[in-house]
Structure formats: structure tokens, C-alpha cells
Design a protein that fits this description.
The structure is a single chain. The chain has 218 residues and is α+β, with helices and mostly antiparallel strands. Helices cover 26% and strands 33% of the residues. It has an 8-stranded antiparallel sheet. A hairpin with a 3-residue loop joins strand 4 and strand 5.
């Protein structure tokens, strides 16, 4: 693929990413991304340091839904294709009370990629998904943790969300540098919105609780 085709694909993906108008309670942790270049470096689409291939996003929100309500949506992997942005297909291959294995297809026109996710479930506290097939990613980890919210509001909880990944392909890595933060925020917001569709309005708007923190520990 020549440079003109690379730029064409990139422009299509950027134009496809929707604007975020609703869920704005987020915090993007860029400390470990090493994406800052010196003034003497020319920041172009194909000039990112190798360390920038690993990307990380983490957020902590107080939301007006219970731990159980959040857990039910996040653990509903077989229906991800219905509400998770850019998830084209989600098929559960194996399912147990504390574990499931699923094949997912994610994509932006004209790119579609598949991978296998191994999901650990601890109801209603945690959903941990990790890619281990090694075809698309060197590393992919998505971690959700749910803890009690306000004492005065039973329908509330704290949601910790973390996603870290590193593509095997330099091309995919360079593309992800262009839109990763927006995609991560869109994903985070999509789950909150889906909980609302299933359970009605939240008792409060989401509140960002993470100022200078670090990712949730697995």
C-alpha cells in the first residue's frame, strides 16, 4: 500500500468517527503513551516513535446506576454488536458463570479485523477482557470495575474503565494514534447509554472522579 492509499484510508476513518455530544465525564491518561515529540521532530502520520504503539485510556466515573445494572450490560458480550461503536460482530463461543470466550469483529470502513477475547467475570464487581490470539494485537486488555456509589443514593456506583492495547501492525498503530482517545471515550459512553436504554434515566449525570490517577489494577 503506497502513501496516498494510506492517507486515503486514514481520512475515511477520521471522517467516520462520530462527534461526542453526550458522555463527557472522562479522563485520558497519556503518561504511558509517550506520544510527545520534540520540537525538532516532524510529527507526520508515519513518524511516531515505536513506544507510541502502546496506547492507554482510563476513566473513573460516578454514575446513576447500580453495580448490577452496569455489570449486566458490560458482561453482555454477545450483544456488543448492537450498541458498541465499531463492533460489527460478537459471537460467544464458550460461556460459564465466571468466564466466556468470544470472537469479535471490529472495523472502520474499509478495515475490518477479527480477534478472540477471553473474558473473566466477577459478578457484579468486574469484567476483564483480554485478547490472546496474537494475530491483530500484541496486547489488548479491557477492564471494568464496579464499586458502591453514594450512601444517600442506592442507585449509583463508581465505574473504573481501562483499555490498553498494542497493535502488531505499524499501519494500524499509526491509525490508532489519530483517533484513539475519541474512540475510547465513545466506547465508554456507549455502555452508559445502553444501561440507560435498558433501565431508564440515571439518578444523576456521570461525574468524572479521576484527576491524576493511574489505571485500575487487574
Amino acid at each position: 500500500m503506497n502513501l496516498s492509499k494510506h492517507y486515503l484510508v486514514a481520512s475515511k476513518i477520521i471522517s467516520f468517527v462520530p462527534k461526542i455530544n453526550s458522555f463527557q465525564g472522562h479522563y485520558v491518561n497519556k503518561v504511558q503513551c509517550h506520544c510527545h515529540l520534540s520540537q525538532h521532530q516532524k510529527r507526520t502520520f508515519f513518524n511516531f516513535p515505536k513506544s507510541s504503539r502502546r496506547r492507554e485510556y482510563c476513566g473513573r466515573q460516578l454514575v446513576g446506576y447500580t453495580m448490577e445494572q452496569m455489570y449486566e450490560v458490560v458482561s453482555d458480550v454477545e450483544n456488543y454488536y448492537k450498541f458498541v461503536p465499531w463492533c460489527k460482530q460478537s459471537i460467544v463461543l464458550e460461556k460459564k458463570p465466571d468466564y466466556l470466550k468470544a470472537d469479535l469483529i471490529v472495523g472502520f470502513p474499509p478495515i475490518n479485523e477479527s480477534y478472540t477475547s477471553n473474558v473473566t467475570l466477577v459478578k457484579p464487581y468486574m469484567v476483564r477482557a483480554e485478547c490472546k490470539d496474537g494475530k491483530l494485537f500484541h496486547h489488548l486488555l479491557t477492564l471494568w470495575r464496579f464499586s458502591p456509589g453514594l450512601k444517600r443514593e442506592q442507585q449509583s456506583c463508581v465505574v473504573d474503565f481501562q483499555i490498553t492495547f498494542e497493535f502488531r501492525s505499524a499501519f494500524h498503530s499509526n491509525l490508532s494514534n489519530l483517533f484513539f482517545d475519541q474512540v475510547a471515550r465513545q466506547m465508554e459512553g456507549a455502555f452508559i447509554q445502553e444501561v440507560g436504554k435498558r433501565n431508564g434515566p440515571a439518578t444523576m449525570p456521570p461525574t468524572n472522579l479521576l484527576q491524576n490517577g493511574s489505571p485500575a489494577k487487574s
